[in-house]
Amino acid sequence: MVVSIFQSLIAESPVMKEKLDIAARIAQTDSPVFLLGEAGVGKELFARYIYSKSKRSEQKFVHINCLKEDTDFLDLFHGTLTVFFDEISCLTLLRQQALLDAFKKKSGDIRIISSTKHDIEQMIAEGAFLRELYYKLNVLPIFIPPLRDRKEDILTLASYFLKNFAFEIKKDIGDFDGEAQEALIAHPWNGNVRELRNMVERASLNSDAPLIYKKDLFVYNESAYYSKIGEGGYDLKRAVNAFKAFFLEKVLETARGNQTAAAKMLGIQRTYLSKLIKDLQIRSCSKT
Fold first, then answer.
1. Comparing C-alpha atoms, which of 245, 157, 219, 231 is closest to residue 194?
2. b/e for 110-129, b at 16 or more Cβ within 10 A?
């Protein structure tokens, strides 16, 4: 179901249609796939699409969240299945070595798909990622472009999300007005499709009209991170928390998920940073 929706959503985008065609061809092989792209571009959807088009589509799909899971790779690598290592660059060097060892000993018909939002080659140069593991995983790379580079997809995706959210909350909201559409297209979308989905959900909850207006959107950008309090129904606390989340995500990205380094950059205790990450629901590599 998720895959069919995904396919229909990008059917009108020439750039993404080309990526989808590549993924379909790659699905017929047994080689490892490396999905590259910013957070929120839909790497997991691509992984599931490749799985759905492969000869293993009737077998098990295992999603390993490298941000938090501590899987025994040796126990995992047997039988017939597809394994997706989500944000593999978040594995510690010790876990990378364990994965490399398991990779060499794997038995059965196993397809490996990995993803990352980080510059792996830079991490290798800095000694933060094993070169041999990278060569094992990066056989068939697919780069998924950010939403800001495919603006023709924005309104299509926004309309799809709006239709679904309106149905879920039982509101008769049909579309975005002209100014709202312009605001959506002009927004930088640093959080990509995930950010768009969240914004449309907030706007759906905030609106009581048949259309979503610009005032219903919690629109911000890097140079002016604010909201018009009262106009869009968002209070000051929510705006401040949104800024905190945005700022911390940028610092964590610069520190490549290393919370100790990020806390030092921010001039705060690591324990306090961990609390902020949890309270603000920030998704980041949990490295010490």
1. 157
2. bbbbbbbbbebeebbeeebb
DSSP string across 221-281: -SS-----TTTSS--HHHHHHHHHHHHHHHHHHHTTTBHHHHHHHHTS-HHHHHHHHHHTT
Q: What percent of the chain has pLDDT over 70?
A: 85
User: How would you label 41-65 residue by residue, b for 16+ Cβ within 10 Å and e otherwise?
Assistant: bbbbbbbbbbbbbbebeebebeebe
The mean pLDDT of the chain is: 83
pTM of the model: 0.69
Statement: 2-145 belongs to CATH 3.40.50.300? yes
pLDDT of residue 121: 93
Of the two residues 133 and 1, the one the predictor is more confident about is: 133
**Is the model's pLDDT at 243 over the cut of 60?**
yes
Residue 198, phi then psi, degrees to nearest 5: -65, -40
User: Domain 229-288 maps to which CATH number in 2.60.40.10, 3.10.20.70, 3.40.50.1000, 1.10.10.60?
Assistant: 1.10.10.60
Helix (H) or strand (E) holding 80: strand 80-86
Residue 223 has pLDDT above 50, yes or no: no
Residue 265: other Cβ atoms inside 10 A: 14
Distance CA(120)–CA(239), nearest Å, equals 34
Query: Taking the chain, what is the end-to-end CA distance rounded to the nearest angstrom?
Result: 38
Q: Distance between CA 162 and CA 75 in Å, rounded?
A: 42
CATH topology of domain 148-219: Helicase, Ruva Protein; domain 3 (1.10.8)
